[in-house]
Design brief:
The chain has helices at residues 45-58, 88-99, 135-153, 155-158, 179-196, 213-222, 258-270, 294-306, 348-357, 428-434, 443-453; strands at residues 6-7, 13-18, 24-25, 33-38, 62-66, 76-79, 82-85, 103-108, 121-122, 127-128, 162-165, 201-207, 229-233, 275-280, 313-316, 362-364, 366-367, 373-380, 383-390, 398-399, 401-408, 413-421, 458-459, 463-465, 468-475, 479-487. With 491 residues, the protein is α/β, with parallel strands linked by helices. Helix 8 runs parallel beside helix 9 (348-357) and helix 10 (428-434) crosses helix 11.
Amino acid sequence: MRSANSRDCSMGVTFRCDIGVQGEDFPHFWEHTVGSGHATLALRADWQAQMRRAHDELGFSHVRFHGLLDDDMGTLIDQDDQPLYSFFNADQIFDFLLSIGMRPFVELSFMPTMLSSSGQIIFRYRANVSAPKDYDQWSTLISKLVAHWIDRYGLDEVRQWFFEVWNEPNLDAFGSGRQEDYFKLYAYTAKAIKSVDIKLNVGGPATADNAWIDEFIAYCDQNSLPADFISTHHYPTDAFGKPGDDTETQLSESMRSALRDEARTARLQAGGRPLYYTEWCTSSNPRDSMHDEPYAAAFIVKTVMEARGLVEGYSYWTFSDIFEENYFPSVPFHGGFGLMNLHGIAKPAYRAFEMLHQLGTEILYMEETHPTLDGWCVRDGNSLTVLISNFALPRHPIANETVHVELRNAPQPTAATVRRIDAENANAKALWVTMGRPDYLGAAAVEQLRATSVMQERRQPVAWHDRTLGFDVAVPPLGVAAIRLEFASRD
């Protein structure tokens, strides 16, 4: 298992919070959307079972995926040189999402072969990423599709969806990589959508690495085009080389909060428009062992909490290892992007989102300063959660830490518990390694790994005196701890 360089246990640090004061609103913005891989996967029973679970246990309300318009979806195909439209498969997916209380974040991609201007192909599932050879026919496809969904689901429902034009158009892998080509596609697409209903939500530029936001907004303003929201992507490795490169070895300490800094810049660029990150993750490498390990949980908690107040949506890529951009995997822990593996076994990353989902909606100021430790205090009615992460980038110093938490103006708690994610807790991959890293799992092994993946709730010793509540909690390297305190009433 990969970890940052260890050092001796620290002498301890104190985090303080006055819980007698009013906090700030803390919306669960990260639950707005979660990513998936390829549209046809959403027709699988196991994908649907995992999606339902992610919605129920983690609170995700939208899902975004590539390839809704690909040939394997049958949305538009050529039959005897005539267009044949079939929205049945898309309807099956959206019917399911609505049935479990979710909605689509509709990425309009990729190009049906019938409309493609070249044979530019990406991914194992052969997505065509060329521009349309006839923009009027592209507009017809978009307007027919959107009008069909309004007929099927109702105008009030579809007005709550998001229509995002394309995916990462600034990368050559997804087209020409030229602004002018994407802007033309966006103009035709946005006009087609608004021709159906002016109140539908359309936005972009859906770029990698926070690119083109200023230029996109300027283009839309100059050409009287709608841009109801801004969307972009970022990964911690994007700052080096080209977006998508596996450049983990170049990570420096300045990157520890790079995603927060990028989100701040994007927030300023977006101005008053809603800002949605429709992809982010611990790295852009589709086979990175850190995706399966406690590193990801500590990274997620820190990154999400630092994005507070900057974004309206923060879509993690992806919720499941049922994913097929390069090949369809079989190894249970192969470093895939997913929060769950192929068998639906929760990774530490999944448990991080579970921990975040169980937070309240009022955040209080926490006094803390430490190179690797971060702490937050979040209230939910008569309960309070102190969330602590111990995170460092690979090959940077990190140690076992003991944190003393001091809560002032606190009533006496009726209960105190702690849940953990670290090398020894909620870490199914570690057990899989001791099993000998089997390529395939039997039913008994799956159940054993699922049981190991669960966060255990244990009693947390606390001391209360003169309206001050104190306790100590040990947090190992790349660990997360959530201490929940219950009170009879708020004094």
